[in-house]
């Protein structure tokens, strides 16, 4: 019987990241370490196992909504339209930053909550690539119509549930030792906004999770008609189903690891066949070792094969320019993408790339962004072998359009 795989869960705690461990066959997690570290990149000595990261509430925007449909296939498009009306449009180049969960279903009417993840910045990802991602509010299941309040990284956050399903979660600006009236007002304001969207939610249960001594929940008790239950925050549980969130840097790392694994398996298969052939010939030579004259004839007959092999090696060397991993179009595109000025709005509409030629068609809202991109291409060491043609961009209704091309100069005889 195989040993269950360990899960390592990174959870935002009251003052820093918490590390929880558990078996894949067991939903219960045990606290391994509670740190005061807020930068996930600074976490060291993580336990071995499948790493799972729960993003803090401050990293996401929850958008509850009602849609006039019960067709699951339409939900992503309807949620995207609703988010765009609110001015939220995730960067498609930053990975899978959105997910969708059902709150309640009725005939041709469904309540949903859309999760919009802010693209992780520098230092916000752990040193080891996580296997999966979710949000902390989904790791603490609530029952019925409930309100839960707790602290993450010194800031008060809250989550609302309807019929046990997450409706909304938000990080507040409150950092007081105990929940105050300002926090209660923020929660009441969220409930009013839900009511305007047709989501009538009045928590029948209020829970305050805190490790503080002599906690004071008077502000919450006066703001809601439900009693306030005070307890330490429970152990997290793996959300079901797990979210589809996947930031771009992790997605790229997984794609690279898969490509590397495929290459290794291919090389291993070729090596196995090669050594198998060698073994078969060795067995034949061992079997016929007493027939010296016959072996000499076989060696003479094999001479043309040696010449053919030399020709084969020469032809293979000619293909080196195409099979070198450094000439892979994906690798070249990555180097070009690194030249795009951050937060400039510049994007590539078309990128035709080979090992010897490049053609880029793109646009940017500002001329400065195009000029900076052009300069970066010329200065990029990894693209030094290409000779770039960067004519002046053309102004359009959307900003500035450009068409750049490059090629590897032909070798002089």
Question: What is the element layout, followed by pairings?
Answer:
Elements: E1 6-12, E2 17-23, E3 30-34, E4 50-55, E5 60-67, H1 75-85, E6 95-96, E7 98-106, E8 109-117, E9 132-135, E10 146-152, E11 155-162, E12 165-171, H2 181-196, E13 205-209, H3 218-223, E14 228-231, E15 246-247, H4 248-287, H5 292-301, H6 303-318, H7 320-323, H8 329-337, E16 347-353, E17 357-364, H9 367-379, E18 387-389, E19 394-396, E20 399-407
Parallel strand pairs: 1-4, 4-9, 10-13, 13-14
Antiparallel strand pairs: 1-2, 2-3, 5-8, 6-15, 7-8, 10-11, 11-12, 16-17, 17-20, 18-20, 19-20
CATH architecture designation of the largest domain: 2-Layer Sandwich
Total individual domains = 3
Question: What is the percentage of strand-forming residues?
Answer: 25-35%
User: What's the CATH superfamily of the largest domain, by name?
Assistant: ATPase, nucleotide binding domain
Query: What is the helix/strand order?
Result: EEEEEHEEEEEEEHEHEEHHHHHEEHEEE
Look at the structure and give the CATH class of the largest domain: Alpha Beta
Fold-level CATH name of the largest domain: Nucleotidyltransferase, domain 5
């Amino acid at each position: 019987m195989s040993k269950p795989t360990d899960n390592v869960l990174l959870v935002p705690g009251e003052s820093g990241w918490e590390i929880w461990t558990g078996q894949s066959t067991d939903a219960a997690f045990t606290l391994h370490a509670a740190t005061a570290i807020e930068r996930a990149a600074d976490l060291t000595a993580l336990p071995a196992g499948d790493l799972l990261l729960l993003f803090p509430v401050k990293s996401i925007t929850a958008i509850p909504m009602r849609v006039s449909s019960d067709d699951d296939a339409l939900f992503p498009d309807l949620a995207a339209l609703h988010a765009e009306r609110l001015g939220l449009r995730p960067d498609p180049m930053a990975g899978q930053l959105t997910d969708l969960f059902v709150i309640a279903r009725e005939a041709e009417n469904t309540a949903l909550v859309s999760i919009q993840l802010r693209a992780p910045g520098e230092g916000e990802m752990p040193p080891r690539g996580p296997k999966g991602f979710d949000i902390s509010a989904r790791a603490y299941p609530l029952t019925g119509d409930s309100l839960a309040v707790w602290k993450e990284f010194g800031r008060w956050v809250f989550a609302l549930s309807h019929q046990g399903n997450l409706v909304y979660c938000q990080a507040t600006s409150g950092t007081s030792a105990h929940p105050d009236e300002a926090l209660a007002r923020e929660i009441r304001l969220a409930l009013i906004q839900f009511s305007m969207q047709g989501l009538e939610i009045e928590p029948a249960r209020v829970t305050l999770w805190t490790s503080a001594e002599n906690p004071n929940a008077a502000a919450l008790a006066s703001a809601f008609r439900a009693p306030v239950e005070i307890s330490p925050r429970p152990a997290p549980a793996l959300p079901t189903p797990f979210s589809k969130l996947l930031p771009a840097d992790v997605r790229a790392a997984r794609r690279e690891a898969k490509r590397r694994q495929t290459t290794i398996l291919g090389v291993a298969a070729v090596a196995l066949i090669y050594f198998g052939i060698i073994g078969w010939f060795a067995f034949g030579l061992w079997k016929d070792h007493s027939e010296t004259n016959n072996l000499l004839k076989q060696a003479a007959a094999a001479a043309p094969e040696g010449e053919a092999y030399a020709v084969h090696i020469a032809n293979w060397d000619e293909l080196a320019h195409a099979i070198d991993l450094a000439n892979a179009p994906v690798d070249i595109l990555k180097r070009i993408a690194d030249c795009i000025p951050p937060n400039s709005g510049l994007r590539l509409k078309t990128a035709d790339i080979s090992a010897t030629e490049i053609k880029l068609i793109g646009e940017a809202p500002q001329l400065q962004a195009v000029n900076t991109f052009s300069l970066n291409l010329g200065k990029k060491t990894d693209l030094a072998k290409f000779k770039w043609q960067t004519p002046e961009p053309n102004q359009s209704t959307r900003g500035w359009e450009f068409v750049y091309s490059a090629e590897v100069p032909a070798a002089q005889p």
